[in-house]
Structure formats: C-alpha cells, structure tokens
Amino acid sequence: MSVILFIHVSAFYIFVSGSLGWASNQGSLSWCSYIVTPNGTCLNSTSIPCHTIDFYTQTEPRAYFQSNSTFCFMSGIHVLHVETFTIENLSDITFIGLGSYVQRSLEEKVDEFHFSPNIENDTIITFLEPTAIIQCTNFSGFLFSNITNLSLINLTIANCGADVTNTLLQVQEANPIIGMKLVHYVAILMVNITNLVIETTSIQNSTGYGLMGINILGQSQMNGSSFVGNNQFVKDNLQLYSPAATYCNDGSNYIARSFYVNNATSEKNLYTGGNAVFVFYQLSNYSAEPVLKISFCLFALGIDGSIGLIDGNTLSNMFNSMGTGLGIQMPQNVYGISIIITNTIAYGNQAFRGANLNLLVNPASGGIMLSGVYSARGVSWIGGGLYISINPLLLPDQNTITLLNSVLSTDYNPDNGIYIIVSNQITASVMVHIENSTLSSNLMLSSVDTAISAKHISATINNTLFGATGCSGGIGAFYASLKLSNCTFNRTNLYASQSYAEIEDSTFENSLFSANDLFYTHLLLKGNVSYVNNKAIVHGGAQYLYNSDLTVRAPANIMFVNNVARYGGAINVYTKGNDGNCIFHLIDPNGTLESPGIHLYFEGNMADEAGSVLFGGDIDLCFYNCTSTPKYAGCVHVPNGYMVTVVKKLGTYSNNGNKSLMISSEPRSVCGCTNNLIDCNGMPGPIKTVFPGQIIYIPVITIGQLLGASPDTVLSYTCNVGSDEYHLLTCTVPSLNDQFQQLTRQYCTNYSYTAVWNNQVNTTQVFLVPKIAYTESYAYASCATLVRVLPCPFGFVLNQSSQMCTCSSVLLKYNIQCDIGDQRVFITANIWVGNTSNGILAVHKHCPYDYCIATDISFAVLDDQDAQCAHDHSGVLCGRCKPHLSAVFGSAQCKLCNDNYVWLLIPISIMGVVMVAFLFLLNCTVSVGTLNGLILYTNIIQPGVVNLLPTTSQNGFEKFFIVFVDWMNLDLGIETCFYDGMDTYAKTWLELLFPVYLLAMVAAIIIGSRWSSKLAWISKRNAVAVLATLVLLSYTTLLQSVLTIFSYTDLDVAIEPNIHNPTVWLADGNILYAHGKHIYLLLAGLLILVIFIFPFTSMLLLSPWLQAKSHWRGLQWMIRVKPFIDSYQSPYKDRYRYWPGVHLVIRIVLYVVFTTNQVNDININLLACALVVGLYCGMANILSIYKNSFLTILEVLLMTNIVILSTSMLYVNASVDTNNILTTISIASALCIFVVIVAFHSKDLIQSFRKKKLSHVNERVSYESLETTDVQESGNSTNILNYREPLLDDD
Q1: How confident is the model at residue 754 (pLDDT cuts 50, 70, 90)?
Q2: CA gap 32, 42 in Å, rounded
Q3: Assessment of whether the complete model's pTM goes beyond 0.85
Q4: Which DSSP category does 168 fall into?
Q5: Are 438 and 1 in contact (CB under 8 A)?
Q6: Predicted confidence band of residue 52 (pLDDT cuts 50, 70, 90)
Q7: CA–CA dist 247, 984 (Å, integer)
Q8: Side-chain half-sphere of 999: how many Cα atoms within 13 Å?
Q9: How far, rounded to the nearest angstrom, does the alpha carbon of residue 655 sit from its chain's CA centroid?
Q10: Residues 642, 644, 647: CA angle, nearest 5 degrees
C-alpha cells in the first residue's frame, strides 16, 4: 500500500514542478494585465498597473475586471477585505501567482484539526503551498458568475468564506431541484463557468466550502491542486462523527461498531462545508456534454456539519450531504457528464455520506473513470471512501464506472470503501469495472458493512485485493451481477442478495464472517477457488447459502481449508421453501457423473455444533433439477437420491473432526443411545420404574442428514398407555417452558425427565422431539421411553401441588434435606434417622456418644440407614452391633468375638485377687486417706472427660494413661468381649458382676478369718479398711451402671393417628424402655439403688448424727458398722467426719450431669467439672478437712488438676488431638502422685518384713488371746469398739 501511495505522490511532484516552472522563470511579465502586490511595493522595471488587492476590489473594480484580463499575484500575503467580491459576465479571466511554492506535510495540518484522524503511518502525504497567498478577513470570499475560460493558477487561498446563502437561494428559486436550504459559506463560489482551469492552487482553512461550482461546463480540469482543512465552522467541535453500536466479529467476540453524530458544542455544526463540491443542472441546454477532469489533486481533512440533531445523538434530518473531500451532485432529471479522476488523493474527510469522494451523478457516455485514486480514512455513514449514486432513468443502455490502479485503504475504523447505488431499477445497465486495485477496509459506517455495496448493477472485478485491516469488508451486492477473477479477499467477504455471482481463480481468506454470505443468489465457481481460515459466528465459515444454489463448472478445483463456524464449518445451506430441489449443480459438457472434471477438497474445517464440512442441503433427499436454463447449460445429470454419493465421490476429506459431525443438517429426529451407540429404531426400551419427582436419564442424540449429529433443544410430551403397554391413551403436548427444554450435544447425552404422580400406579410413554422440527412443523422422528411411577418411598410424602415426593414432615422439622433421586436424606452430625422395629420413620436429634458418625452424611433411609452408624453399629439409635459382631468393654466399638473369649474371666478373676492382695499388703486403704483424693479424681475424669474423647484418635502412649484411669474405676481398660453376640444388654449385666466379685472376695476373707488363724494373720488388722476401699471403688461403677440402666429417650416419629413417640433405652435404642427384658435391668438397678446407693450415701453423709443417736431403737446397728464407717472417717478431723459423704454427693451430681448430657457435648461436662470441683476444692482448702495437712494438700492438688484441665479445654476449644494431649498431661501428673503413694506404702511393707521373724510368735499369741477374749465377750459392744483398727492420731 505504501508503494502505491509513493507513486501517486511522486507523480504529483513531477506534474506540479512542470506547471510552476513557466510562472517562476518568466523574465518578462508583459502577459500580465495587472500586477497585485501584497504590500504596495511594485516592480520599477514595468509599466504594468500594480496595486494591492483592496485597490482592485474596492476602487472601481469594473474598470479592472474585464474580459481577457490576467491578474498576477506577487509572492506574499494578499489580504481581502471585501465581504463577497463578485466577478461576472466576462471571459478569459486568469488569477495567477508569481513565485515558488512550499512543500507542506499533511501531518502539520492534522495538528491544527484535532478532530481529524492521526496519520502517523501516512507521513509521506505532502502537498504544495504556493507563496502567493490570498487571505481573507471578516468572512470574505469570491463569486465568479457566467464566465467563460476561468483559470486559477499557482495560488494559496486561505481562511476565506463568504456568506453566499442569498445567492444560492436565488439559484435554487430558478432551479428548485438543487434543494439547498441551509446557510452556506464558500471561499470561492462559481456559477455557470465554462472551461474552468484550476492548477497548482491550494485552498485551505475556509469557512464552509473551499470551492463550490454550480454548472461547471465545457472542458474543465483541476490539476496539481490541494484542498485541505476546509469548513472551519466545525473545527472546534471535536470529532463530529464517531463509532457507535453494531456487530462485528473479531474472530472470537462481537465488537460494537456503527455510526452516530456527536453532540456539537456550537450551533455552527449546522453549516455545510467541505473542500470542493460541484453541482450541475439544466445540462440539456448545452450542446456538448461537460467533461470534468481532476488529476494529481489532494482533498483532505474536510468536514461537513449539515446534520440536524435531536437530543444530542439522534438524526432528525438527513440533508443532501455533498461530500467534504470532493463532491459532484446532479439532480435526477439532469443527464450527461463525464468524470475523469486520476492520480488523486482523498484523505481523512468527514461527512454523513461520501466523505472523501461523493458522486451523485448521471454520467454521460464517457461514464466515470477513476484511475490511480488513493482514498483513505473517510468517516461517513455510508461510502466513506467513495460514494456513487446513479439514476439510470436517464442513462443510455450501456454505462460504465471504472476504477483502475486505485487504493482504498485505512487503518482507522474500517468499513465501506465504495458505495455505489442505482436509484431506479429499469432495463438500463450500469457496468462497473474494477481492476488492479486494492480495497482494504476504508471506513464506511453503514448498516451494510462491506467494502463495495452495489444495487441494480453489473460488475466485473479483476486482479483486485479486498483486504480488511480491521473488522470486515468485501463486496455487498443487491440485485446485481458480479464476475470476479483473480481476486483476493483477505479478512473480507462477499455478501449478495438476489444476485448472480461468478467467481474464478480467487481466494477468500481470514474472513471474520461467512466468506460468501448469499441470499436468494446463484453462485458459480470455476477454476481454482480457495476458502482458507474463514470464521463465522454462526453459519458457514466459507459459504452460507440461504435459499441460494451453488454451481461448479469444470474444470474446477475448489478448496475449503481450516474454515470454522458454529453450524457448517465449510458450507451451511438453508433450503426452506425450495420444493426439495438440490442446490448443488455440476457443469461439464464433456464430463460424466463418474468423471466430471471437478474436485472438492476439505481439510481442517471445524464446526462448533454440527457439520464441519456441510450443514444442511438435504443431499440425501433432494431432487436434482438439471434444467435447460443458461445458468445450467452443460449440467451433469445426477439421479435422485444419488447426491450423497456425488458429494463423497468428488470430495477429498482430511482432518475435519469426527466423521459423524462432517455432514449434518437441522435435526430431523431424536435417537436413543445404547453404550454410546446411536439407536434410531424408535421403539421404547425396558420399563423404567421411578418415584414421583425422581429424575430418569434417557441417553439421546439429535441427528440430521446422514445420521450426522446436530445439537438442538429437545422437548418432551407424555402419553398414558394401556395395560398392554403398547396402545396410547391420553397424551399431552410438548411444552415450550424453559424447565422442559434441554440441549443435546454432538455426542450421546442424558435427557433428564422428572416423573410426576397421576393418582395411580401407571405406565407412561415419554416422547422426545427436536424443538426446531416441532416449532417449524417439518417431519421428524421421536424417541420413546416407558416409565412406571410408584408411590413415594419410605421417608417421603407426596406434595399435592407438585405431585412429587418430598421430605416427610418429621424430617423437615429437623431441617433434614431429602433427594428423591436416590431416596437419600442429608443429615448433620449426631442426628439419627431411621425406621423403628414396627417400620415407623423416626428421628432423634442426639445420637448416643460414639454410636453415630460425627460428620454430615447422606444415605438411603430405607435401605442403608446403618450408614450413619459408627464402629459397625446398627439398628435404632445405632444401639446394637451388626450381625456377627459383639459389643466390647472399654469402648463403644463392635468387634469380632467368639465363645472362647469367656476364658478371659480366669485372668480377670486373678486380677481381682491381685488387686485385693495389693490393698492388703500395702495398706492402701481409705482409712489411711492417701488414696481418697486420687480415687475421687479418677471417678470424675473418666466419665466426664475421657469417655468423650474418641478412642480412634488416641495413640498408644495416650491409651497407657487412660488404662490407669480405667483400672482405678474397676474397668478392664482393654477392648474385649466374652462371647460371640454379646450386646449392650449383656455387657451392662457383666459390668455389675466385677465389683460384686471383689466385694464378695473381701467379705469371704473377713468371714473366714474368724474361723481360720491363717486368714486372720494374712488379713491382719486392715480387712475392714480394704473392704471399705473396694466398696468405694465399686460405688462409682455401680452408680454409672444404674444411671445407664435408667437412661432413656423419646424418638420423634412421623405424625400419624394413634401413634405416639416411642420411648427407648438410650444405651440400645432397639430395646423399648421398661418393656421386655429391660424390665429385669430396671429391677436390678432399682435393687442396687435401694440396698446400696441410697443407704451407703446416706450413712456416710449422716454418720455423725446417726452415731450420736445410736442408742435410739432402730439405730443400734450403727454400733455394729462403726468399724466400717470409721475406715472412711479416720483420716478426717472429727468435725468433718461427714466429708466422705460429700465425696459421694459430688459423684452423684456430676454423674447425673454426665448421663443427662445427651448432646454429648464435652464442654457441658467440662463446665460442670470446673464449677463443682472448683467449689469443692476451695472449701477443702479453706476448711483443712484432714487431720494430716499433707493429705489436704494432696487432695486439693488433684482437684486443682481437674479444674485446670476443664478450664484449659474450655478456653482453648481446640481439636480432638489437643484435648488428648491436655488430658494425657493431667492423667500423667495424677499417675506420678499414685507412684509416690505406692512408694510411701511400700516403705512400711519393707519395714514390717524385717520385724517379721522377731514379732511373729508374740503376734500369734497376742492375736489368739485377743480372739479368745472376743469369743468370751462377744456380747459386749464396748469390747468390740476397743479392738477396731487403729486410727491416725488426731492433731
């Protein structure tokens, strides 16, 4: 492009240099009639009159301005002060400048016009500015009227522009067809001029038009002149015309682009203006056709403001815009002018239409010739580069518009370059011939977005490049006939409507729309035609044929490579209303069907949806219509239905995507899929059984011609079928509601159908149809599926409004979500949902601790309710173990077990013996007091803290310390069972046996020691104290068991008549509370409460008062149990002998809190421990309850340990791992204290062994004497009290 532009400008320099030579090199000025001086200084060597321009124009101008006069203007600035200087009714008038010229760059002018485009890439555009300058003031200008042979040579006319409105109105009154109704300012107005010559003249910066010629007749010419920056009225209006919104594809997205008129800052925008305009009328009065020749001229940076505005941007009036670069205008009833424009530049002009070149003409037999024209960056609604409007009503039979060796190119908002419009459709023809030119995205902002728009016209275009540097371009043809040869369309396209287009040896590449976008048009391809890298948003990357037909004439090699569109990557055909005729035709007079001399090549074409090679055309169904009309002459006959074979036979296909997507059409049917294979037999498959609201997925695909995938929206309708599941009964109609429309893909996809209830169990046949086929009422095939709808399943109820299954009311009460799709419920942590033993849906918001999974979960409430259970639990409240698993001691887990595990009772029994022996030997009893605080510590921390820590989260080190706590609470400390099938019920019974076993063993030793001296020696004097210690240890175990036995909860069931919420045992929800075998546990628990828990607690708490009243009848038994009670009271001061009872009360209070904490929130237990133990700790410290202050300190220290642990865990509120660490630290410190206590008692044991031999005989004699005394004085209570176990001395 820059090379062609350089040639234009170079030729312009050569012409101008030759033209100026004769003016600047004349030694004699005798040929001048008058010399015009700029400042009053004249040449002394001549007698020719010499004055300023004011002198000639203001002092008797008629004396000087006469026919055959030549005015020679000296170099300099000549200021014209006359408002409108008129020269009329003369002949042979010449204005010529004497002097040289200055070469000016167009970029310098751009700096003065900030509304003009940036020309950074066009700085080689320059023009010549003669040094003889006529400059106007106060809206001055020239009027030349009725002059023959007028010449303007080597002058610069700047800043002129007189108000010629009245003059033009007078012309308009005589010739109303002109239609000039606005205010007009013109620098030079010429009316009825014959043989006009303008050479090497520059008209600049005018107000309004630089030059306006009305009826310029004869042989007129403009050579080497420049018209730059005229119409200063709108200079300060910023950019008058701007882009606005239409659609343009940049390859991936739409870009907004169109045209609107900016809101001007001054009313002066309503004035017309521009560089040069010619108006012709009444040409029939002249014998010769006018000829206007324009060569080596520049028309740049003009702007027209003749646009009316409403609300800023709305067009209210589209006046006759005559162009701001070069405009030539003729009324419709005026005929006959030849226009020749050569080697001319039009650049950066702005107008409503035809900004650079605007030709509203009726050409004579010579037509319109444009050669070597460069038009760029014209901003218009239409025809920014060249606008030609022709009225063929007055034209001869043959008229031509020729464009040769020209360039229409711009990088600024590309759009229409040439707009050629023929106003009347008659038999006269307008021939357009374009050759060796480049049309590249010149700006044209119109509703027709092409580089050439033609109406009612025939065009032959050879060796021309249509190249868009911006968005689009190419050719737009309406009712036209086009012949293209050796043309290249780059980023442009051919748009034709109701036209004929013949393309030979041409290339369409990189278009951002369909390369051939054709409506009701016949397209003929021949030779080598290529479509490469074209991309359309929707239809046909290479070709979109809307009710158009395509003929290929041999020899032909048509290539479609790398074209992309949504439908039809290469070709998209719309054939509605063509009576089923094929749109493809083959022409080869010498060819046959087997060898037609035509080859089609398809490679790398892609479609986003369907038809990478071809979409539409019905090639499998169409009728091949080989008629005798001229356009089908030599047509190769193809039998009906054989077009598919022809397309495949003539084509070579490579890398066009999935073969099933290469050739397709609008969907004809919905087919089912089996294992991703298309099944179009239309028969329903096996019955699908569903619940109301449940979604079934039907694998389907919509297909077009040749079983090619064709994505579409699928609609559904249903029919009830008879008992034979074949005959259709009542049917619905397809719904166009959005919820029933689903889009298919290029492969088998699932259509989701939601079943509804029809008041009975019935079978429905669901039909799926393609939406396009249904809405446009053409033949289609449907896909059918049989569906049987069942009543709502367990946990769901039928919603009467939607006729679909929803959550039961009891589930909604707890914000439980349901999914009828897979009959699942979604619950939060520790909520239990399931069916009871009698099949009723039940909910409990607090599952027993460690029975249920402690996270949110979903499961099928009917078939998989055990999925919510943890550690292999099952059943109601996850209370029992799964089959073949057993409950174990030491945790809530279920594990494998067998009957041989019963032998574990032997080592456990031995452990009981060892424990009793340990207490006897070391004298670690409650009577000493060293274990009292430690026992209370372990009794509190185990149920309050340890039991709420998940065992699965504990490592071996942490479990070691927890085993110590378990043993102190008479638990095994290991996870074990005794026989296969052991459940929670049996486990509870067994938990009662071990403490009973220990108590029985000690009682047996005490009783046996009365009859055996050996047993008496072994038990020594602390048998009662050991018994008291074991009773205290057993108390907590029995208390926990009793509270477990009596714990219960109510299940919340679905609200139904005569159904009450069932009450179940909390430890095993499968057992009804106080029913069946649970009654035996209740009786055992009640027995323990009555004969042990309540009496023992009352006796220790009230013993000081009871002992004081032991002489009362009914309380004398206190004397017999005094040694037993003294074992508990001996470490305490006399006034705090009730303190062992306080220990028991603390246990009861805390255990009741722990048991009733059904939410299993460890924070509740921690808070209770912190408050109760903290209060107790403070009281014990203040009162100093023990005789030995060391024991007080020891107990306060252990209780403080509990308080610190509880408050730390509450404050930190940390993870399970952190809680395990804190608990381990606490227990480890307590274990250290236990080790110290054992060491202390071991010391006494060692000392007693040293004295064993010396004191053995004496002890035996003494003990036998004591025994004899006891027998003799067994009825004396005083003697019994004197021989009880020694107590620690009081302080």
Answers
A1: confident
A2: 14
A3: no
A4: H
A5: yes
A6: very high
A7: 77
A8: 15
A9: 31
A10: 115
